[in-house]
Every structure is written in C-alpha cells, then in structure tokens.
Amino acid sequence: MFSHFIAAFIATFLPIIGYLFLLPFLLVLLLTYLNRSSKQMLVNQFGLQAQVYLGGLGIILHETSHLLTALLFHHKIIGFKLVVLPWHLNANSSEQALGYVQHASTKRLWPTLGNLFIGIAPIFGCTAAMYLSTYLLLPTTYQRLNAFIMAPTGDSLQWLLSSFGQAFSSFPLLLIWLLLMINITLGGFDLSSADFKNSASGVLPALLLVLVISCLLTFLGLSRSTTSLVKRAGLLIASWLILSVIISGLLNALLRLLRLAH
Asked: 12, 17, 14: which is closest to 218 by C-alpha?
C-alpha cells in the first residue's frame, strides 16, 4: 500500500517539476542566449534605440509581468519603469536598463516563494500575449495549434503549418501577427541575471510547496488526472516557447547576414 502511494506520488511530482518548471526553463535559457546575441548585433548595427523599436512591446510585457506578480506576492514596489523611450536613451551607454521593477519582500513564506515566480513571470506573461494575439489575428492557426497539442502527430503538424499558408489570404493580419511575435519575443523573453538570481531564492519554498501539493493530490487519488492536466499545460507553454525560439533563431540569422553584408 505504501509503495503504491510512493509510486503515485512520484508520478505526480515529477511531471509538475518537468513540464511546468524544467522544460520552460531550458527553453527560456535558449531564448535568452539568442535574444541577447540579437540585441547586441542590433546595438552594433543600428544603435541602442533599435532594441526599443523592435522589442518595445516585449519590454513592456516583461516588466508588467514582474510588477503584477510582485504585487500578487505582497512585495513592496519601490519604483518601476515599464520601458525607456528611445529618445531618452543615452546613446553612449550600452548598459542602460530599458525598463525595471524595483521591489522588496519580507522573509515570510509567501513573499519568499514569490521570488521564483516574479523572476520567471515574463515567460508566462509573454506566452499569454502571444496566445491572445494569435487567437485574435489568426484564429485558424490558433485552433490548429490547440489540436496539435492535444494530438501531436505528423498529420496534425502538417495541418497546423498549412494554416500559415492560408493566412496569406489576409496578408495584413499575418504581417501584424509576425511583427507582434518578433516584438514580444525579442523584448520579452530575455531574462536578466537579476531575474535568474531573484528566482533562485524562491526555488526551495516552491519545491516544498510542490511536494505538499503532490502528497495531497496523491492522497485524494487525483494523480492521474493531475498528470494529464499538467502535461497539457506544460506542452501548451512549450509550444509557444518553441515558436519563439524559431522566430528568435531566424531573426538572429538575419542579423548575422546583415552584419556580414556590411
């Protein structure tokens, strides 16, 4: 009986950690690398202001995600700026912050736990923005992406990719969607060193919380349904992050070609 409980507990605990934390974290590491490289090339080629013009919306979403999550976890907001306008940037400094949220917490459990989620909040905020943009601008693609997540087969992938070809019939919407995806991806998914450091201080409380929740779900006999729900949510987040990786990779390659051309 006890061994059965342990097996069910592990089957609940590991998917939560893997799908909701580890998989998004690995994809964001890749996104951070690609976007930092792209931003550096943008600055070198077109100046510091180019980061705001091509990633301003993403920067606003990034900082807003930090801000709202900090408020949710009862952190004191010391100051914030969602984006620095291009004409206010110091052209002689490549280290100037393009936006920031300064906050402080007590040592109580809830605010300490919040450090993890505040640090990674842009992952979920920017993913939600991409999801909503696609829902509004490319509803067929949105529906087929959901179908692919539910049943990730070769046929459903081909069906999903064909939706982009159909979207050319309404090219202005496709162009707006693409520009939004570039802007959100370039400006929003680049987690700073401070973001990673802030998140690290909340990892232990988060693991303890997941342990407690996993034990409770196992005791209530909800392991199987929870695992299915967690897997679906994790794959949904991962699918949008993979789309961001593809966009980031193509943009990075384009900037490298432009650099070689000069």
From this structure: 12
Nearest residue to 139 (alpha-carbon basis) of 119, 164, 114: 164
Backbone angles phi, psi at 171, to 5 degrees: -55, -40
What CA–CA distance (Å, rounded) separates 192 from 247?
20
Domain ranges of the chain: 2-47+108-261
* pLDDT at residue 94 in the model: 47
The pTM for the full model equals: 0.84
Give the span between the Cα atoms of 78 and 99, in whole angstroms. 14
The pLDDT value given to residue 91: 55
Rounded to whole angstroms, the Cα distance separating 13 from 235 reads 17
Q: Could you tell me which residues come within 8 angstroms of residue 218 by beta carbon, excluding any fewer than 6 positions away? A: 5, 8, 9, 12
Q: Other CB atoms closer than 10 Å to residue 82's CB: what's the count?
A: 17
